[in-house]
Amino acid sequence: MSLPLSELTRHLDTLLRVAEIPDELNAINGLQLEASTEISTLACAVDASEAAIDEATRRGAQLLLVHHGLFWAGNRPVVGPHARKLKKCFAAGLSIYSAHAPLDVHPELGNNAGIVRALGLAPDGGFGRYQGMDIGLAASCDLSFAELLERLRGSVGEVRAFGAGPERIRRLAVVSGGAGGYAAKAARAGFDAFLTGEAAHYTAIDAEELGIHLLLAGHYRTETFGVKALGERLASELGLTTFFIEHDTGL
User: Fold this and answer.
1) How far apart are CA 23 and CA 101, in angstroms?
2) How far apart are CA 200 and CA 216, in angstroms?
3) 89, 130: one domain
4) Please, where are the H alpha helices in 59-159?
């Protein structure tokens, strides 16, 4: 089955509420590059990297759906890797659609929803105010710290733990990606542990002094959940062929 790119774009814009969700200026959510007209095969990846573009092209995709798009560096000359990626997309007929904050906050398909679900928990509130909305989730639980780490390692991957939280975890806050700056806010809001992808050096001191566990599971790995879930939804609902491209940055 195939769909016109314009129809699929409208479907994604509506599903992800792209026009309603605030984001960073250079996120440019929605269709970022139009190089095809009909979509039957869709590739999903965390980043619009050259490696992802090459693999999507090799496997015959007409659309690459990503969490981090092409334009994070803002206005810049179209030279070097940036030029190569654009040339490859146009030559192969590979369009690119990006969903950053809209895919973080989606209540079913979002990165944070996926993490909480993978931990066997249910969200019971939001966390992490950003431009008037919560970009993360809160969840209640009753786990030892060791049990929480075991669940994280089984669902997200290797986790680095900092800080000095309690042995029993009853309140967990989750914000995928690079949200370490929310650690102090999580502690002051009464959470026992805060999970994100990566953090600055000072956040480890904050966590230690404020009595919270700071758990870093990798920017990349905490943001695979959304694009995977979205690809699966599009396959089941629209009959498209979809696949996920693994390209772990290690960060």
Assistant:
1) 6
2) 11
3) no
4) 80-92, 101-105, 111-118, 145-155
Of 248, 250, 249, 234, nearest to 40 by C-alpha is 234
Strand partners for 173: 138, 194
Domain boundary among 73, 99, 125: 99
Query: Measuring CA to CA, how many Å separate 141 from each of 120, 124, 163, 172, 191?
Result: 9, 10, 19, 7, 11
The closest alpha carbon to 212, from 157, 173, 159, 155, belongs to 173
61: closest CA among 91, 76, 40? 40
pLDDT in tens, 168-208: 999 999 999 999 999 999 999 999 999 999 999 999 999 99
Which of the 8 DSSP states describes residue 108?
T
The reply to whether 113 and 189 lie within a common domain is yes
Flag whether the pTM goes above 0.85.
Answer: yes
pLDDT in tens, 15-33: 999 999 999 999 999 999 9
The answer on 208 and 168 residing in a single domain is yes
- Domain holding 50, by residue range, is 3-99
Beta pairing partners, 143: 169
What is the rounded CA–CA span in Å between residue 9 and residue 107? Answer: 20
Domain with 168 in it: what CATH number?
3.40.1390.30
Residue 1 to residue 44: CA distance in whole angstroms: 18
